[in-house]
Amino acid sequence: MSKAFVAAAAIALAGAGASCARAGRTAADVVITHANVWTGDPAKPAARAVAIIGDRIVAVGGADEIERWRGEGTREIDAGGRRVVPGFNDAHVHFVDGGAQLDYLDLKDAATQEEFVRRIGERAKATPPGEWMLGGNWDDQNWTPARLPTKELIDSLTPSTPVFLGRYDGHAALANSLALKLAGITARTPDPVGGAIVRDAQGNPTGVLKDAAMNAVTRVIPPLTPERRLKATKRALDYAASLGVTSVQDMNPPYEDIAVFADLADRGELTARIYAAPMETGWQDQAKLGVHRAFGSPWLRIGAVKGYADGSLGSTTAFFFEPYTDAPNTRGLLADEMQPLDQMRARLIGADKAGLQLCIHAIGDAAISAVLDLFTDVVKANGERDRRLRIEHAQHIAPKDFDRFAALKIVASVQPYQAIDDGRWAGRRIGPERVKTTYAFRTLLDKGVRLALGTDWTVAPLNPMLTLYAATTRATLDGKNPNGWVPEQKITIQDAMTAYTSGSAYAEFQEQAKGTIARGKLADLVILSDDVFSIPPAAIKDVKVVTTMVGGKVVYQR
Ligand SMILES: [Zn+2]
Predict the structure, then answer these.
(1) Residue 306 Cα, ligand 1 centroid: separation in angstroms?
(2) From CA 124, how far away is CA 332, in angstroms rounded?
């Protein structure tokens, strides 16, 4: 008899009433005892213990209730009074990139441009000639004065190493002269649609490429070898397990990544559940197979597509109705996918008609508005149904659009860490008025919009504690807003935890299977070092994961 069948039978028994369940019941494989459980289940929010058979939770309740599930072979995990919560579901990651980047050059904490240059030089010495130097994660806003780097800073240090280092937001990157040469970018290369080649006063490329302009370089970077792709995936899985992340929603994976996930799933080696949303422009690939939203197994699902409406705030490519306050010559860029708009509309309607879920990146108020228009057209074309359209990031929403957001039942897939990161300089960039409805998590919840939480790893750290900290404190990374930047948009730890667990599960059509600690749900849960519900929000960032369990198996133990 399969474990899944036993669990299902046990759940049915337990449902029939305690007296019936007492006699001759199947013993639990695992009981978690002495736990301070936040179940996330409004019907039964707190518990002391959990019983698990196979990959499912069969009982949640008081110590006595769970004791009755103990049998000879039952393994006990004593939580030692610690806080137990449902596993975190990161609704927006770039998973294999993230795993690969754990080995890449990481310049996020390079405090000066000199430090940035020094580290690139150091890495070049350790890189075989001809091998690409990738990664980056740099942030010019950390430097005084904040200014974009140039290829001249690094060319002499990297004569035989093509360098392509992304800004941390992924919407700009620095290439050295060798990389530009390999990509064929010269002073005569025009800016592509949806992108910009940053140039000096003479019109020569400085090495910084924005959005679609980066494609010329990414096209010539050799793809990951199968071995490196597998290694990166395993790195990412281990890292996620260590942080209590038990589900991820992977945005824009190349199909080769999904093949790796499928192999690992077959071998029983996935330690996080994955919902993969490849590029929207390739929607017909999935449609041809007849695959619908959330198709697959509890370990791996496909059936969503992810598109882009604009760029990012940091790169001044997020698309606004009005010009940037600190760059009045631009209001950002509509992504190349959105041009022409008729084709984008036709693709989205086609993908939706095929039963695929639509997830669209939109950051600036005009981009969000444009996506709301497109989603309205999708509903009009294909009729009402439960489709859970998603706007990824949803950072700067025009006040007039909140009600539309709610009426269309859009899921806001948001990354609170961005607020404490961008919050350092977003006010200068877009001015005091637009900032009021920026990262507007409280307003979204008040309007009845469903939130899904995530990180956009590697744009922000994968660690859920930093996201919870950001959502509840809005204390910017520079320490200048200890009581919160736009503090009226703070949300409570209950709100944040709900969004990070059942909210993210809802965003992938899986709220029946996971996201709460409840009878019948997948046994994905985390034991925390400290109680995030009772410590001051400012201390949440230091909380550690003690144990991570996925499908009834411990995948990380501190
Ligand atoms: Zn992303």
Answers:
(1) 9
(2) 34
Averaged confidence pLDDT in the chain: 94
* pLDDT confidence band for 350 (50 / 70 / 90): very high
pLDDT reading at 526 higher than 60: yes
Which DSSP string do the residues of 222-248 spell out, in sequence order? PPPPHHHHHHHHHHHHHHHHHTTEEEE
> Strand pairing partners for 358?
305
pLDDT at 8: 58
Q: How far apart are the first and last CA of the chain?
A: 33
- What's the 362 CA to ligand 1 centre distance in angstroms? 10
Distance 455 CA to ligand 1 centre (A): 8
State the pLDDT confidence band at 13, using cuts at 50, 70 and 90.
very low
The DSSP H or E segment spanning 451 is strand 450-453
Determine the 3-state secondary structure of 127 from DSSP.
Answer: coil
Tell me, in angstroms, the distance from the centre of ligand 1 to residue 255's CA.
16
Ligand 1 centroid – CA 33 distance (Å): 38
d(CA 509, CA 521): 14
Tell which residue, 411, 490, 422, 417, has the closest CA to residue 458. Answer: 417
Give the Cα separation of 528 and 36 in Å (integer).
10
Residue 373 Cα to ligand 1 midpoint, Å, equals 22
* 1 confidence band (pLDDT: 50, 70, 90): very low
Could you tell me the distance, in angstroms and rounded to a whole number, from the CA of residue 520 to the centre of ligand 1?
32
Cβ-contact 57, 27 below 8 angstroms: no
